[in-house]
Structure formats: C-alpha cells, structure tokens
C-alpha cells in the first residue's frame, strides 16, 4: 500500500496555450486540484517553491487554504529552499497551516536547487557566515527550525508584558504538536539521505540525483532509500521514517492523452547540475498494460511508502485530475498499491 499524491511546480505563463496565465490562476487552481484529488481518492497535495520565477513561491497561505477546503489528504511542500527562510517566522507559519488542516501538514525542505538569480537569498537578507557556504547556512536554518518545532521555551519573557505570560521561557506560537515528526528533507545524494536519517527527518527524493554511478536512476535511488533506512535504524529513532519519491507518470487512455504524451516515454538522462554530474529519471508514459509493467520494475518506487506524481499544471485542473484518477484508480490497483 502506498500513499499517492501530486506535486505541482505551479508554473504560469501568459501564453494562450496555458490554462494558468497568472499567479492568481495557479493559486486558485491549486486549491481546486487539491479538492478534486481528495474526492477521487488521492492522498496528498504537494507544491514546489521557487523564488524570482513565474511559479509558486510563498507556500503557507496556499497550504492553509487547501487545509481549510479539504479534510483528509496530506498537504505539503516539495521543497522549500532553507537558504531563504527565517526559521522562527517559518515555524509560526507552519504551525498555523498545520492547525488549520488538523495536523495534515507534511513539510518538505532542502538546501535548495539552482535558482533564477545569483545568490537570491541575499535579497531576502541572508548571507552565509564566515567560513560557511550557502549549504551550511541552509542546514543551520534547518537546525533552528527543528529545535523550535519541539515546542520548548527558549525566549526570555518581558517582566512587564502587555499581556500576562505563562511561567518560564516562552516558545514560538502557535505550536502544533507532532509537526516536528512531519518534516521531510529533499536529498539529492545517497550521503545526504544518511544525514537526513540522522536528523530524524523523513526522506523526500525527486526525479533527479546530483550524482551518477552508471546504474539506472531507479536503482541508484533505491540504494539511496536503503542507505536512509539503515541510517535511520542505526540512529535509534522511536518512530518509522517515511520515504517519498517523485515520478512523471502519464497513462495514455484516450486521444487527448495520446496527443499530449503519446511519445513522452524515454530513458534516463545524464547531465550537469551545480557543476557536477547528475542523473535524471525517465518519464513513464504509455498504454495501461505497458505502463503497469514498466512501473513494476522501478525499484525505488517499490521501496518508498509515498509516490508523488509531478503534474503538468498548465494543462488545467480537469486534465491533471484525469491523470491522477487513472493512476490512483486504475494503475495503482494493478500494482498492489491499493
């Protein structure tokens, strides 16, 4: 059994071919798609965060709105770039969104990917300290976030406050119990997956890894998952760590599917990311029988408990809901995921 959700990058463009021509279109359609996903039996609605781009950025207003309009599905991010974040303010926003949703927030974060501008985090007021790089800063922000999400007091109260304080040091409010256990790290390498387990975070693995050993992507990612689970066990955590993988999966069941994705299937790609070699996973597209066969051979999907489907949000809510419906209610049962 697997949880199956969607992951939207939230693109928009003024092109007449796009169903999302503005930020307003993307935000409102994201809410509608989450509602539709819940109705058709999917398990999650996740959103990518990019700055300085025609894509979804500030996630918490959207997550709160989705949480208010739904009642069952998980809501989350995949992922928030921690180079840009004030971890205390982020803890307040995340706590609020989680409480509105009734504890359904699954917060994916990471050290960030290549962005639209050079060192964009500096425009947000953040810069690495002496002897640090941007990755160190992202992990430092993350450690602060994880600590304050525990809900323990750390701030000295004012002896003459406007309103009475509870006794002792004060914590970030609103606090949402259990949210600390629902933080995920977007790991791009096998070593980072081990670090993620040591920190007690869930593992979120995408459709690319910023390393390449020559084996197919799904096998490299399966090794990443295996190393995460071993590191988790070695750390002695008192709960099970969760693992999600992302995939582009497009069942071809009608002429419109065939027009959009009839020739979209392919092979892994190898390229360069941040100056290093990277392996990109293939797109799965085809008739149901072949699609089921191909997906059954994906070792990383088999190892994960959660599958996030990257959706072409610019094709609109109805088409994306159609893709989710076919995967959840036709493909998944054939593979034993339902």
From TrEMBL:
InterPro entries: Bact_Lucif_Oxidored, Luciferase-like_dom, Luciferase-like_sf
Annotated EC: 1.14.14.3
Any Pfam family the entry gives: Bac_luciferase
Sequence intervals crossing the membrane: none
Assigned keywords, A-Z: Monooxygenase, Oxidoreductase
Domain of life assignment: Bacteria
Top-level class of the enzyme under EC nomenclature: oxidoreductase
Keyword Phosphoprotein listed: no
One GO MF term attached to the UniProt entry: alkanal monooxygenase (FMN-linked) activity
Stretches assigned to the Luciferase-like domain: 9-258
PANTHER family (alphabetical): BLL6902 PROTEIN, LUCIFERASE-LIKE MONOOXYGENASE
Protein's UniProt name: Alkanal monooxygenase alpha chain
Gene name, Swiss-Prot/TrEMBL: luxA_1
């Amino acid at each position: 059994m697997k949880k199956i959700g969607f992951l939207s990058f939230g693109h928009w463009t003024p092109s007449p071919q796009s169903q999302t021509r503005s930020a307003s279109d993307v935000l409102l359609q994201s809410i509608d798609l989450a509602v539709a996903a819940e109705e058709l039996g999917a398990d999650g609605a996740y959103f990518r965060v990019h700055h300085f781009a025609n894509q979804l950025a500030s996630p918490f207003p959207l997550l709160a709105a989705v949480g208010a309009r739904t009642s069952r599905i998980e809501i989350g991010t995949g992922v928030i770039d921690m180079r840009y974040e004030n971890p205390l303010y982020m803890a307040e926003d995340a706590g609020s969104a989680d409480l509105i949703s009734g504890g359904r927030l699954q917060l994916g974060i990471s050290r960030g990917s290549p962005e639209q501008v050079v060192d964009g985090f500096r425009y947000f007021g953040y810069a690495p300290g002496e002897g640090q790089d941007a990755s160190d800063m992202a992990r430092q922000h993350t450690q602060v976030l994880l600590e304050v999400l525990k809900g323990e007091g750390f701030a000295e109260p004012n002896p003459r406050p406007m309103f009475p304080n509870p006794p002792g040091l004060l914590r970030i409010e609103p606090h949402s119990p259990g949210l600390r256990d629902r933080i995920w790290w977007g790991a791009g390498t096998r070593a980072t997956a081990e670090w993620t387990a040591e920190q007690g975070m869930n593992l979120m693995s995408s459709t690319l890894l910023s390393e390449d050993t020559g084996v197919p992507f799904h096998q490299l990612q399966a090794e990443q998952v295996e190393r995460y689970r071993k590191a988790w066990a070695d750390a002695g955590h008192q709960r099970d760590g969760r693992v999600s993988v992302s995939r582009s999966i497009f069942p071809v069941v009608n002429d419109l599917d065939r027009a959009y994705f009839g020739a979209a299937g392919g092979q892994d790609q190898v390229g360069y990311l941040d100056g290093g070699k990277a392996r990109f996973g293939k797109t799965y597209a085809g008739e149901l029988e072949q699609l089921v066969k191909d997906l059954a051979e994906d070792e990383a999907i088999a190892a994960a408990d959660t599958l996030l489907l990257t959706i072409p949000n610019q094709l609109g809510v109805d088409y994306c809901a159609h893709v989710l419906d076919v995967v959840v209610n036709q493909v998944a049962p054939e593979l034993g995921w339902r």
